[in-house]
Amino acid sequence: MLHLPLEKIKPGMVTAQNIYNDRGVNYLASGIPMTELYLERLRELGIGSLTVFSTETEERSASNINLPRDILDKKTRTEALRNLRDIFDDVSRKKTINISLLQGSAQRILDDILMHQRDLVQLSDVRQHDTYTFAHSVNVAVLSALLGVSLGYSKGNLITLILGGLLHDIGKVIVPKEILNKPGHLTKEEFAVIRMHPSAGRAQIDLIKDEPRKHLLGLIAEQHHEHIDGRGYPFGLKADKIAQLARVVAIADVYDALTSQRSYKDPYPPHIAYNIMKNLTVGQFDQSMLELFFQNVAVYPITTVMETTVGIGIVKKVHFGKTLRPDICVFAERKGEFLKEPFMMELSEEPGVDILRVLNDDELLAFIEKKGVDPFVFLAENYPLRSYSAGKII
Predict the structure, then answer these.
(1) Domain 74-293: assigned CATH number
(2) pTM: predicted TM-score of the whole model, two decimal places
(3) Beta-strand relationship, 392-393 and 327-332
(4) pLDDT tens digits for 27-70?
(5) Where in the numbering of this chain does the HD-GYP domain appear (predicted)?
(6) Domain 2-64, what fold?
(7) Contact, 219 vs 208, CB < 8 A?
């Protein structure tokens, strides 16, 4: 599988993600061969990149592979998106948030999560830029709840966390779409408008009547851009002054933003998002929560192609709690020559094997075009498990 900009996608490549239009309707399902007509329509929808199978043969081989699935049932996600859009529309027309619209969705999201809580977050669907806020908010609710489960939260607190995730960006109704979807850098004045949305969200939530969770939901909306070191906004709160639920949502918010496609950027792969959040945002997050969060997220998702000290491999399985050390099928030497006998290796059991780098999609496309073989096909076979000892494969 490849994640490519639209200009590099050719007719005959097969979609590996669902594509939704501005009403949350599945416009193009995973597994559909691309045509020039589809590509033209995707450009009209404002979609700049897409994950695809390189050929129909590769897509057919996927039926033999345990590819990741959405943690949420399709109906649950679609309903949450529709209800959230209705709430944003109501608020934009000066109506009060109808929290009852989201309560059923929150319960169904929790039910799906508890049923699949050890399933790792690996892939996301593609949506129009105009619907980013809704899709993002549902993803934040899911990611927040997964972290909440790891933190041992009660079901009541998990529901609060899900509702808070769904409503964390409700204040963006005050932000003009041309700013939200601006493809270039924001001006100082435009960013000042963006920075108003946490307080605006709190104000909207404060208007809700007869909701016992209102105070906590308001704190999540108001504080999800605060940083542990006090450099966040709107108030520059530090550490324990930031509500715990808001600290959870802050992590989910940034991860989904980094790994999502926007009008101004392509999505970062999960391992890049991990490095950014671990190393380039020191002081922004609660570090103990961040460690737990990445036990729920596949840093190297299934189908990731990586160079290791023992050769080039493709990720076949990711274990809960061991997301930095997946199981890989090693199929080529580091110079790119195919092995006569590929083999499996459990990196979590091999401390002497280092992950050197992940092949980016341009490198992978060049590899496929040069070799005439997509590494994805190696996932369909069962190869012997090998170990690494004293500098040798045994």
Answers:
(1) 1.10.3210.10
(2) 0.88
(3) unpaired
(4) 777 788 889 998 888 888 777 778 887 765 565 555 556 666 77
(5) 111-309
(6) Molybdopterin biosynthesis moea protein, domain 2 (3.90.105)
(7) no
